[in-house]
Amino acid sequence: MIVRTLSECRNSERRVVADNWESVRMLLKDDNMGFSFHITTIYEGTETHIHYQNHLESVFCMSGEGEIEVLGGETYPIKPGTLYILDKHDEHFLRAYKNKEMVMACVFNPPITGAEVHDENGIYPLLD
Questions:
Q1: DSSP 3-state assignment of 25?
Q2: Residue 119's pLDDT band (boundaries 50, 70, 90)?
Q3: How far apart are the first and last CA of the chain?
Q4: What is the dihedral of CA 7, 8, 12, 17, to 10 degrees?
Q5: Judging by beta carbons within 10 Å of its beta carbon (0-12, 13-18, 19+), is residue 7 exposed, middle or buried?
Q6: Backbone phi, then psi, for 56, in 5-degree steps?
Q7: Are 51 and 93 in contact (CB under 8 A)?
Q8: Which H or E run contains 6?
Q9: Does the keyword Lyase apply (predicted)?
């Protein structure tokens, strides 16, 4: 059994901070779950370019509002209660609107291995 709190992980090396986002890695590859689970905050009024080449990613917005724009495709609004799922190659922009940061729960398969290290040649253990 794994029991962790968000505040415990936030005060450890599991918290990763960039200019326009931060992410708390609640589960990583070393936890042997076959996926990783993160609480990610996109800072208000910012845009983040994301491209995980070989990951399935499921994201649930818990608070804030913004949008996701799939590169070369559609733009979709994101608000609390919105779930979006990206397949192995969805390069995209994630934007948080100016009035509030956007907080999301994110699941990656295969799991992220560390602070911001992705196993881009990994397998998809949940799909085997």
A1: strand
A2: very low
A3: 23
A4: -20
A5: exposed
A6: -90, 135
A7: no
A8: helix 6-10
A9: yes
